[in-house]
Amino acid sequence: MKIIIEGSTLSTKGFTGIPHYIISIQKALKNKHNIEVELAFNLKKINKFKPEVLKKTHFWYVGSILFSRTFKPAISHSLHTPFLKLRGTKKIATIHDLAVHLPEFAEFNFASKYFQEKRYKLFQDFAKNADAIIAVSQATKDDYLKMFDYPEEKIHVVHLAPVFKPLETKLDNENDILNSFSIGKENYFLSVGGVSKRKNSFNLIKGFALSGERKTTKLVFAGKIVESEMEIIKVFLKEHDLENDVVFTSYISDETLSVLYKNAKAFLFPTYYEGFGIPIIEAMAYGLPVLTGNIGAAPEVANGYALLVDPHNPEEIARGIVDLGNIEKDKVKLAKEYAKGFTWDKVAEETIKVYNSVL
Predict the structure, then answer these.
(1) Of 29, 30, 39, 297, whose CB is crowded by the most CB atoms within 10 A?
(2) Looking at residue 116, what is its pLDDT?
């Protein structure tokens, strides 16, 4: 079976969820017998890597004349991007989340109006032209069906998996990495996904301040920083003398992130909304007690192994942070075993089943 995956989001600065998905699913599919996988790109975004003749090409995609006659894919797989214009292929779309379209999150202004309209049209096109849709969680599937007219039986839930495996041994530079952020082993809480309104960073900081844990434990945010949210946070940190208690790493390598997971005291992720929430599984895989939000896909992914809190309520987040210290070790061990069930090999197997369902 020949598969073409639309990979333009790999040009995004700083790898986040969807680019990681593309790389991981491509590798996993290529390990399967009788599966061939290629990536297609937006030529405008990658023209600096192409010969001059392609720099002058104005086609959005590698078109059917240039590509399909040689590779002849059976499946065209789109990931939050328009379908490739290839004749004779079945169209599959993966949907990661619909947060920007949900009315309950309108007040948070997760994205510009232009982005919302563009994404809405894309999801409309999926409803009209997709032979099947992959949703990364039941929550995402339910959200899509609330908004678009599409056969329920043609939407398949395929859970995601962690991007990297837990570190089994100590790295030579592990202490140097921790020292670079002025933290030590198990003296900090970790939150992954960056600083943004959607990740509920401000309420987490408020909850951290209310919990009293700052006396012995720091709070580390790993990932992209949205400056508009950061400006509000900086004022709060200064007013509450928290500037030395909260650490922001911005983008970091997978190796550095692995070290932060491995040495954290617990994982805090009271996000407003997740289409899946890979960091929840990553933290469990490292044997960390996990606190997360009680809405979106987070409860589905946590599956009873995390402490759930109302992300709108800093006081409840604070109580949750304190309660993490009382979670039984056996429950944390069970969560670690549960996390082992999320692998990219399994994602690939389930994805192939979706491919076969349309052939």
Answers:
(1) 297
(2) 82
